[in-house]
Design goal:
- The chain is of the alpha/beta class and about 325 residues long.
- The protein has one domain.
- It has eleven helices and nine strands.
- The N terminus is likely disordered.
Length: about 325
């Protein structure tokens, strides 16, 4: 992988208090050391309890997750609570599995993560313009990325965290499994460079995009959605390939990850004046793919994030 990946990581961090940063650092070191020594199955069990504890203690996030599920899927509170609780469990499992990666052998990762439909990605890469891997905070996207990095050069766009120490640790884990990292705040040049070199680029656009995002409906409610995948597809000619890391049932006794690679789709703009309309249409395709996998596995998506905000309720221009 490129040795320039460190330079691509932006130092943009929202500062946190020194006491909070120190506490997070101690907890991270303690948990990381234990997870590196445990097998994936042990990490899954610890993570399940961690997620349930967070769900029970974090009232604000718990209520946000339940409300998000009710709004998006039209369920009653009891149904939404069950999905939100299992989503928190999956989050805990994913966290602990991620922390195990520095201690995992390549063979262990191959045995834990299957890849179904890899031919779709290989076919997309044969076009010579690289491929944009559409991923989401669903199942375990981190170990799927680690598994794909065993097959091909792969880069990922990352969003800097508020805690720079935690950011450095997470970046170190991702680089250790062979991923090149590009900051969300970097210019488009390093991203397009990866694609024009025929590489694969991971994007996770399912968080709220902030003021720069397009105002589009997600599960019927408007939100600011990230348009970068569609824009990069037009700029580079790279197809978009949905890749989902779905956790097998039953979670505790099996719980391994199925990497599901789906057929690619392209985003085209014939003339320059058509580009913005093509970006929006491509983003709608991204949203449709995301909604489909979340409806299929609603308890594996991270519902605790503030994806829908009051400021986004204005009519779409």
């Amino acid at each position: 992988m490129s040795s320039n990946s460190d330079a691509m990581i932006s130092p943009h961090h929202r500062p946190v208090s020194a006491s909070r940063a120190a506490c997070e650092q101690r907890l991270s070191r303690m948990l990381s050391g234990r997870m590196e020594r445990l097998p994936f199955a042990g990490c899954r069990r610890v993570g399940a309890h961690l997620g349930l504890a967070f769900f029970a203690a974090g009232r604000r996030r718990r209520e946000l997750a339940i409300a998000n599920v009710q709004m998006a899927l039209g369920l009653n509170r009891a149904q939404a609570t069950r999905i939100a609780r299992r989503s928190a469990q999956n989050w805990g499992m994913t966290t602990c599995e991620f922390l195990h990666l520095p201690g995992a052998t390549p063979q262990e990762i191959r045995e834990y993560v299957s890849l179904d439909g890899l031919e779709h990605l290989q076919s997309a890469l044969q076009g010579g313009n690289g491929a944009i891997l559409l991923m989401a905070h669903l199942g375990n996207w981190e170990v799927v990325g680690a598994r794909l990095a065993q097959e091909m050069p792969i880069a990922a766009i990352m969003r800097p965290l508020s805690n720079s120490t935690a950011q450095e640790h997470m970046s170190g884990v991702r680089r250790a499994v062979g991923m090149q990292l590009i900051s969300k705040h970097a210019a488009a040049r390093p991203t397009i460079k990866v694609l024009r070199a025929g590489g694969a680029l991971c994007v996770l656009p399912d968080r709220h995009a902030g003021s720069e995002g397009a105002l589009l409906p997600l599960f019927g409610r408007q939100t600011r959605f990230e348009i970068a995948p569609a824009r990069f597809a037009i700029m580079s000619g790279a197809p978009i390939v949905p890749v989902w890391g779905v956790r097998r049932e039953p979670w505790l006794s099996n719980g391994r990850i199925e990497g599901r690679v789906l057929p690619a789709f392209s985003v085209h703009a014939g003339q320059r004046h058509e580009r913005e309309a093509a970006v929006i249409e491509g983003t709608r395709q991204v949203i449709a793919a995301l909604e489909n996998i979340v409806r299929t596995h609603p308890d594996q998506w991270s519902w605790m994030l503030r994806r829908w905000r009051d400021d986004d309720a204005a009519p779409i221009a």
